[in-house]
User: Fold this.
Amino acid sequence: MSDRPIEVFFYGLLMDDSLLRSRGIVGLNPRPATVEEFGLRIGKRATLVPTRHERSYGMVMGLTHQELKGLYSGPGLEHYLPEAVTCTTLAGEVVSALCYQPAQRTSVR
Assistant:
């Protein structure tokens, strides 16, 4: 498995740098970003759902496959799957990134 960093968009608790550091993970080049046409929904866990006319805020940063595997093998996160998204940083940089989502979610249009 490659140890090169992959851009990941975090929108819930895992966007907290101190939480990641407590798990031994230091995201590379973390920066605030948004994803268009996804709305944030809070339940037992946060999730993004496809929606028109909404935007979700979070952080984009580089992590390795190994770091992602470790994060998403924890309790309650093992059913999250990676999905490709396009996010835009506050500086205007357009970034292709992975975004982990629960396997079962509801679309709101």
In short: The radius of gyration is 13 Å. The chain has a mean pLDDT of 88. DSSP finds two helices and five strands in the chain. Residues 6-102 form a domain with the Hypothetical upf0131 protein ytfp fold (CATH 3.10.490.10).
